[in-house]
């Protein structure tokens, strides 16, 4: 008599299911990419912050009268950082929309491409905010440019254009000279009336370099904060 021994079947175990060919591969691919389970909150947050950054940067660039001040001071380099942040905000909105579409269509290649764009947008927002702050804060690259323009206006104050520019800047901002009233004394120029307070008659203590830098800094700091928030979202975010 021949006895055939078979391995005992453990209780609670079932033979592996055999589905249609390719079903298991597709299931593993979906789990690897994480399309069906990951929420879209991060992408929505990116789009909202990107839209806010785009809108605020556009406002800085198109604010009525602000472009005239930049032209008078001859500091057009200030807009370089603004242009970079405008581009960053627009690209964030575009790629966030495309990322949502690729997630809904469960297109793995498009999702991996979306991950690559996040690295690029992170670098773009950091560079844009760094350039903007470098041309709008105290002890930054913008101050020597403003000082050069103000001193040129003082030296050529006998010309109508320079005289009108000095009067507009000093009356509107409430400042005197580049770094203070001593600039006029050192250049042997008379102290103009717009350098004096209309109430007390005393000369303004602060120079126009610091006052104008504070004016630019107040505008730029909010755009830089929004850019840093957007960069942080790129770092902490994940594919939808």
TrEMBL record:
Bilayer-spanning residue ranges: 43-60, 80-104, 111-133, 221-239
Subcellular location: Membrane
Organism domain of life: Eukaryota
PANTHER family recorded: TETRASPANIN (PTHR19282), TETRASPANIN-2A (PTHR19282:SF555)
Record membrane topology: Multi-pass membrane protein
Name of the protein in its database record: Tetraspanin
Keyword set, alphabetical order: Membrane, Transmembrane, Transmembrane helix
Annotated spans, Disordered: 1-31
Coiled coil: none
One GO cellular component term: plasma membrane
């Amino acid at each position: 008599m021949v006895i055939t021994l078979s391995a005992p079947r453990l209780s609670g175990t079932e033979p592996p299911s055999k589905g249609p060919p390719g079903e298991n591969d597709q299931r593993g691919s979906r789990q690897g990419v994480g399309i069906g389970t990951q929420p879209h909150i991060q992408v929505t947050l990116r789009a909202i912050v990107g839209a806010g950054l785009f809108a605020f940067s556009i406002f800085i660039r198109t604010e009525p009268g602000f472009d005239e001040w930049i032209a008078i001071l001859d500091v057009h380099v200030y807009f370089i950082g603004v242009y970079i942040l405008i581009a960053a905000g627009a690209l964030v909105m575009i790629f966030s929309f495309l990322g949502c579409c690729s997630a809904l269509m469960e297109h793995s290649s498009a999702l991996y491409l979306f991950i690559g764009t996040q690295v690029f947008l992170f670098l773009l927002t950091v560079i844009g905010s760094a350039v903007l702050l470098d041309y709008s804060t105290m002890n930054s690259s913008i101050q020597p440019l403003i000082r050069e323009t103000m001193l040129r206006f003082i030296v050529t104050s006998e010309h109508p254009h320079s005289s009108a520019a000095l009067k507009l800047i000093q009356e509107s901002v409430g400042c005197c000279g580049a770094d203070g009233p001593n600039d006029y004394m050192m250049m042997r120029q008379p102290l103009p009336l717009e350098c004096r307070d209309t109430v007390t008659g005393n000369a303004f203590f602060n120079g126009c370099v610091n006052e104008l830098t504070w004016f630019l800094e107040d505008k730029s700091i909010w755009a830089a904060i929004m850019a840093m928030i957007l960069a942080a979202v790129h770092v902490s975010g994940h594919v939808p």
